[in-house]
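Project standup — Tuesday

K.O.: blocked on the structure for the chain from last sprint. Re-posting the sequence here as requested.
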Amino acid sequence: MRPMYSAIPVARSVETRRDWLVWTTILGSLVAVCYAPVLRGLVIQWWTDPDYSQGFLVPLFAAYVAWCKRSQWQGAEDNPNNFGLIVIIGGIFLLFLGTLGAELFTTRWSLLVVMAGLILFLRGSKKLLVMAFPLGFLLFMIPIPAIIYNQVTLPLQLLASRLASSWLEVIGIPVLRDGNILTMSNYSLEVVEACSGIRSLMALISLSVAYCYFAEQRNWVRFLLALATVPIAIVTNAIRIVIAGMFAHRFGPTFAEGIFHQASGWLIFIAALLLLLGLHELIRLSWKTKPLHA
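H.V.: unblocked you, prediction finished:
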């Protein structure tokens, strides 16, 4: 006959699991109700704003990484921390402030604070540490504040137009630059916000971080590759403008607009990815190490 005392730990385990499910249901429902309008607005912006269309892929990748970490999650010790409840309340307070001030970034960012607080409160700091990367990666799904966006795009526009005008002159195409407008003999090419390179930069940084997580184990290389996305995006975007100027000068304005313009954007983005992969391979050859396979 099995000793009676052996049922005590089992009963406690069942009770603990029941409490955890109750808390998860209650808090999860509250979060879903509070953040339904925020998530709806976020999805609408992903759909309508080409600068952040990669937002649809960010949660999927974060979920995949979390799935890959399931063994670490199960092996990590449960140590629920009541401080997580304070973090949750702080996140809700940020949501309240952001809603009052019509600041979308604050309301969206507060969701990640609440998610971190939920994990800390229900499962503890060790399991929060396991989920730190997929949770942090979700930052890439949140559009940057408009005030920062506007401060970044104009310098990028001017830099891209300056580089493009210099390179057009090098290849023998006369061009006059006035701010972000390039005037050639038969066409005036305006480097607008969409051509500033911010779109490819945001997508390239998120892809770089995702790639480095699986392909590289050295943190300094990860940081270097993420940092390298900035000049790569700037240079490749300037090359795109040069190509548009060349086609407009040689074949007419039609070849600098419409489907040709869109196709060149995809080709240049692929070229930027290849440059990033080439840089990583060069680092590997210079400092040989085995890639990390998650």
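K.O.: great, moving the ticket to review. The radius of gyration is 25 Å. Strands lie at 176-178, 181-183, 188-190.
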